[in-house]
Backbone:
């Protein structure tokens, strides 16, 4: 059985930055990250690790698209028990710059912040499990 670091994998899947590329070693569960901010020598070492003869051991990890992140925020807004917050989040989601505004509002509500982080974590893990099963890793 492959030893998966679920927290790292979920963090990778949920990374919207598009400045990092993630690869999962399907034999060991090791996660490799290539960042555009890495030194050139570090990038060369990563390329060696991901050379053609070893690349078959690695799966590129597809990160969430913004529409998937948006959908996740919509789902959370629909299940939150605070009716005032629910309306505020729905209003934010229909306006401009919803990602930042959503985060800012949720962070001002300590209990809902915890609920959001748990909700997001569970959704990302669910997506990770589906992907790993599809790829035959688990």
Residues:
């Amino acid at each position: 059985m492959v030893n998966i670091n679920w927290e790292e994998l979920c963090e990778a899947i949920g990374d919207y930055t598009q400045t990092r590329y993630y690869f999962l070693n399907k034999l060991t569960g090791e996660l490799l990250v290539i960042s555009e901010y890495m030194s050139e020598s570090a990038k060369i070492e990563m390329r060696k690790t991901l050379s053609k003869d070893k690349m078959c051991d690695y799966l590129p990890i597809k990160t969430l698209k913004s529409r998937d992140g948006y959908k996740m925020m919509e789902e959370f807004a629909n299940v939150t028990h605070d009716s005032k917050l629910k309306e505020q989040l729905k209003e934010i989601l229909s306006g401009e710059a919803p990602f930042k505004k959503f985060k800012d509002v949720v962070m001002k509500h300590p209990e809902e912040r915890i609920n959001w982080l748990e909700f997001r974590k569970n959704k990302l893990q669910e997506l990770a499990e589906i992907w790993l099963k599809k790829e035959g890793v688990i």
Observations:
- The chain has two domains: 6-61, 66-134.
- The mean pLDDT is 92.
- Residues 132 and 138 are 6 Å apart (CA to CA).
